[in-house]
Amino acid sequence: LLNSIKSNTERTFSVPEIEEFMHSINCISLKASSSAKTDITIVVHDQRTGQQPTLGFSIKSQLGNPSTLLNAGKTTNFCFKISNLSKDHIKEINAISTKSKIKDRILKIKELGGIFEFSNTEKQIFSNNLVLIDSSLPKILSELVFNFYSDSKTKIKELVDEIEIQNPLNFDTSNNHQFYSYKIKRFLTDIALGMMPSKVWTGKYDATGGYLVVKGNGEILCYHIYNKNEFENYLINNTKLETASSTRHDFGELFEENREIYFKLNLQIRFLK
User: Fold this and answer.
1) b (16+ CB within 10 A) / e for 116-136
2) 130 contacts: CB under 8 Å, gap ≥ 6
3) Is it the case that residue 30 has pLDDT exceeding 70?
4) Who contacts 65 (Cβ-Cβ below 8 Å, separation ≥6)?
5) Cys-Cys link to 219, which of 27, 68, 215, 230 (CB 3.0-4.6 A)?
6) Residue in 125, 114, 37, 134 with CA at minimum distance from that of residue 77
7) Least confident of 127-131, 218-222, 242-246
8) CA–CA separation, 271 vs 273, rounded Å?
9) Is residue 47 classed as helix, strand or coil in its secondary structure?
10) How do strand 239-241 and strand 77-83 relate by DSSP bridges?
11) Is residue 157 helix, strand or coil?
């Protein structure tokens, strides 16, 4: 199976030799529902506790293109209120159509004296989910997203290190507490194991076991939820932000609402590999 996957250049293909095995284990689908984080359910024989829990694991493969941790959608848009900018400039700024148009529009707004201030997430349900994890998360993520679109950094670890220095929420860092890193790790963990932006998050994990990572050579790594620190470090060190389709997800343009000017930016997270 590994050789077939690595040697095939098509986006979709069949491997007849493996179908008999799949039927023998009652596997009728290779892909889990988009509403579920669990890809495979395993009975684990735990030698430490003597128990045999049935746990759900999410599978991430490094054999193909890097997979997403958080898919883009209008649900993951962050709205910024723009002050000190004339409405006469809206059409001019929105007309910028360079390859890096969103970054260039932000630069133009700043050049004209515009000031960005986080207002809200486009969908309240996502905001409430974030607040459930940590009340500071909407603001922290807005800073992370804004820095991503304003700079060349894409890796989450680098972006978090940057806001640790900037400290936009004015946390007391006199004792070197890593506030931002800790909170982002909690966010990534909840996203990885169950939370979805468009559904009410209760804190109950779907993928109760953790992650199974299939490496490029076919080796399988298990990041078990028991080893929470390792799992969190894996997530923060192996993910990045990326720009999704601004047309499809309706962001990256100035617009007026209630006589105020706003600008939306989108959050999408993908694994590095």
Assistant:
1) bebbbbbbeebbebbeebbee
2) 121, 137, 138, 141, 187
3) no
4) none
5) 215
6) 125
7) 218-222
8) 5
9) coil
10) unpaired
11) helix
What tokens does 154 get?
A: 């894409």
> Helix, strand, or coil here: 272?
coil
* Measured distance CA(141)–CA(183) in Å, rounded: 10
Q: For the chain, what is the mean pLDDT? A: 89
Segment 43-57 mean pLDDT: 81
Q: Tell me if residue 261 falls in helix, strand or coil.
A: strand
In this structure, what are the phi and psi dihedrals at residue 189, rounded to the nearest 5 degrees? -65, -45
Rg of the chain (C-alpha set) = 21
Work out the pLDDT band at 153, boundaries 50, 70, 90.
very high
The span from the CA of 181 to the CA of 183, in Å, is 6
Biggest distance spanned by C-alpha atoms of the chain: 70
pTM of the full structure: 0.85
pLDDT of residue 237: 96
Q: Give dist(CA 203, CA 170) in Å, integer.
A: 27
Whole-number Å distance between alpha carbons of 162 and 157: 9
Question: Would you state the structure tokens that stand for residue 118, as one six-digit string?
Answer: 């986080």
Angle of helix 137-150 versus helix 156-166 axis, rounded to 10: 110
Exposed / middle / buried, residue 89 (Cβ in 10 Å: 0-12, 13-18, 19+):
middle
For the chain, the domains span 2-65, 70-206+229-271
Asked if residue 270 lies in contact with residue 66, where contact means CB atoms within 8 angstroms, the answer is yes
* CA nearest to 105, candidates 248, 252, 261: 252
Instruction: Please give the single-letter amino acid code of residue 143.
Output: E
User: Dihedral angle at the C-alpha atoms of 254, 105, 145, 259, nearest 10 degrees?
Assistant: -20
